Amino acid sequence: MIVLYNPLSCVEGRRRLPLPLLALGSQLADADYAIVDGNVLGADAAGRAVSHLRGDRRPVLAVTAMPGNQLRSAILDTRSIRACVPGLRVVWGGYFPTLHADVVLRSDLVDAVVRGQGEETFVEWLRAERSGAPPAAIPGLSWKDADGIHHNPDRPFARLDGFPAFPYHKLGDMEEYVIRTYLGERTLCHITSRGCPFPCNFCAITEVYRRRWLAEDPDRVGRVAERFVRDYAIDSIEFFDGNFMADESRALAIADGLRPLGLRWWCQARIDTMNRYSEETWRRLRASGLGMMFFGAESGSDWVLARMCKQLRTAEILECARRCRQHGIVPEFSFALGNPLDPERDVEETRQFLYRLKRVSPECEVLVFVYTPVPQPGALFEDATRAGFAFPSTLEEWAEPRWVRFMSMKDPQTPWLSKRLRRRIMDLELVVKSRFPTATDIRFTRPLRWLLQGLASWRWATGVLSHPHELAAVHRLVKLRSPELQGFDAPPARRHRPPRRPVAAAAASVEAARVEAAP
Fold first, then answer.
1. Interatomic CA distance for residues 181 and 178, integer angstroms
2. Rounded distance, CA 296 to CA 205, Å?
3. How far is it, in rounded angstroms, from Cα 234 to Cα 443?
4. Which end of the chain is less crowded, N or C, counting CB atoms within 10 A of the terminal residue's CB?
5. pLDDT (tens digit, 9 = 90+) per residue, 283-328?
6. 2-151: what CATH class?
7. What is the pLDDT of residues 366-386, one digit of tens each?
8. How far apart (Å, rounded) are the C-alpha atoms in residues 509 and 226?
């Protein structure tokens, strides 16, 4: 028996399809396996996994692990499951194990790590486990034996179109994943590409995918969207690609395929890429239902962007904001403040830049994070190391509250940030999200929006950011959502709704879309 395990990672109401496990499951059509999703089962997830595995002659637990809350859940749940299942073999995959394979394998919890793109590596590891073949010949695998830890050569990347479709039926009730968001009443997510071709030296995607970008064919993407509309009556979709818009012709083909379905959609993109898109492409993207795009702006300082190898200048951020406003698309710009070389200057220059950005695009969303290092060669990580930064050396240390906060990019307590500067970043974030309340929190009433804007206006106008106790009190009182951590969902109590249109009607609309798109 094989259990594909998704540890709890999201806050309540932020549930998303476990895409990594669906990718693995697509390779296991003839195998006896189950998907156990901690985001659905919560505290019962580990027990459910044990019930599947206990008594099996060759039990296997495959765990996906992202940095942050999910990593802590992965550590605790793996320990709990392993203690209850004799003979259990455990393999981890995902961003964290790929970047920190030695730390994972030094633990007695994990037997092997699948690095990077995992579908083929995982299947080959399973075969070796069943046959008793040595794992040394499996590309992309890290493993251990009595002689120590071994890292096999990287696996060449495989085309996504060569993999089977995701086995959504293995998830049980798909209504658990259909949620109400800023985009629509019934939103699902999908991923159409992996990796990114750009050299940013602060981003885990660059290190894991070695600047490769692997993309599905637009027709395949269209078939998934049609299935979502036909089978689950969705009206909106989020594309969780790291760089959805990397290729203009592909993005345009996908958009043209989505337009007859009447969906609203969201994706992530690069600023300079979108600035190169033609006006015709922008118009067709908007006409297809594109309502919001997420951009990594990272800093309001050109020298910091250069040190990040971002291949971007602040003037291009402003131009992208202008074009988004021109075409009625809401941009989300994230900033990672606190560059280790000169954090004071970085924070102040970015603060000043936010005023320019908001003048160009008052409706843009601004998400403020604190820079946290990634184990990737480059100037930023070298600066961080020289400043005294070091990652934990054990999984147990990674599970400590301090490192969970570090991975949230909110209060990482890095050695180059003084307590005063950390406080200043937090105050800046609070003033910005109060003066410009997010449009993505669909619980926001107009009076509440006016209250926050009124309280924060004088601070924004005068630049007096310190000690915004009145704003903190309002946020605590009404428990407003933070889209950078929680997404743009509705409150959990309103998540389950009947389809706005029956599934049969949705299927008819798909067929009508096919007719409309036919030559």
1. 10
2. 13
3. 21
4. C
5. 999 999 999 999 999 999 999 999 999 999 999 999 999 999 999 9
6. alpha beta
7. 999 999 999 988 889 999 999
8. 9
User: Domain locations in the chain?
Assistant: 2-151, 178-269+489-519
Sign of the torsion formed by the C-alpha atoms of 162, 168, 171 and 175: positive
**Sequential DSSP letters for 37-89:** EHHHHGGGHHHHHHHHHTT-SS-EEEEE--TTHHHHHHHHHHHHHHHHSTT-E
What is Dmax (Cα atoms) for the chain? 70
- Distance CA(381)–CA(239), nearest Å, equals 29
Strand partners, 179: 187
Structure tokens at 79: 């320990």
CATH architecture label of 178-269+489-519: 2-Layer Sandwich (3.30)
Copy the structure tokens of residue 8.
Answer: 């709890």
pLDDT tens figures, 396-451: 999 998 998 888 887 788 999 999 999 999 999 999 999 998 888 776 778 888 99
**Range 172-178 average pLDDT:** 95
Lookup result for tokens 């089977």? 164
User: How far is 422 from 428, CA to CA, in rounded Å?
Assistant: 10
91 neighbors 97 (Cβ within 8 angstroms): no
Note whether 21 and 4 are within 8 A (CB): yes
CB half-sphere exposure, 101, CA atoms < 13 A: 21
Beta strands in 115-175 (DSSP E): 141-145, 148-151
**CA nearest 208: which of 291, 93, 110, 294?**
93
